[in-house]
Amino acid sequence: MDFIVTGVVTQVLQPQSGQSQKTGNLWMSQEFLIEHESGQYPKSLCFRVFGQERIQQFNIQQGEYLTVHLNIESRPARNGGYFTDISAWKVERQVQQQYAPQGYQPMAPQQGYQQAPMPQYQQPVQQAPFPPQQPPMAQGGQLPFPPAQ
Q1: N or C: which end of the chain has fewer CB within 10 A?
Q2: 2-93 in CATH: which number?
Q3: CA distance 108 to 29
Q4: Distance between CA atoms of 9 and 86, rounded to whole angstroms?
Q5: Per-domain residue ranges for the chain?
Q6: Average pLDDT value for the chain
Q7: How far apart are the C-alpha atoms of 95 and 65, rounded to whole Å?
Q8: How far apart are CA 61 and CA 72, in angstroms?
Q9: CA 17, CA 48: separation in Å to the nearest integer?
Q10: Cβ distance 48 to 31 under 8 Å?
Q11: What is the DSSP letter of 99?
Q12: Mean of the pLDDT values across residues 76-82?
């Protein structure tokens, strides 16, 4: 299954390496965390790049804005469950832009700190009581008005 994710690399984990028990060949992989927009809130996804050559070719750095093409595959694990692998097979660097959550508007730079004027109220602002006050009970434990239907 192929997926495409665009976002900012927020974390670069240490490369892992070892030797295949089946073939005896050496292997290397490295994981990366990318934050992407998905709905109202940004989401993070951890993906893997497998192979020393591909790790060097992609040269992924923290803070980069990338589009990553992913293969997602699940295989049976030894314990009876499943192991899901999310591997990058292609990485595209995007035009450098500052990543910000949807709806975020950066403030214009200012020379110095200036306090905003406080609004002037005609009448004093009253605090709501906590917990909210209940309407007074009429005689016999009934509310003074009929319930809304």
Answers
A1: C
A2: 2.40.50.140
A3: 42
A4: 15
A5: 2-93
A6: 78
A7: 8
A8: 22
A9: 13
A10: yes
A11: -
A12: 90
> Which ranges constitute the DSSP H helices of 38-100?
52-58
Q: Could you identify the residue written with the tokens 């990485």?
A: 91
What is the value of pTM for the model shown? 0.61
Cβ–Cβ under 8 Å, residues 94 and 76: no
> How many CB atoms sit inside 10 A of residue 20's CB?
9
Residue with the larger pLDDT of the pair 46 and 97: 46
* Predicted local distance difference test score (pLDDT) of residue 149: 55
What long-range pairs does 101-104 form, CB within 8 A, spacing at least 24?
101/37, 101/41, 101/42, 102/37, 102/40
Of the candidates 67, 59, 71, which has an alpha carbon nearest to the alpha carbon of residue 12? Answer: 59
Query: Going by C-beta distance under 8 Å and a sequence separation of 6 or more, which residues neighbour residue 90?
Result: 68, 69
Distances (CA, A) of 51 to 21, 23, 76, 93, 95: 16, 15, 22, 20, 26
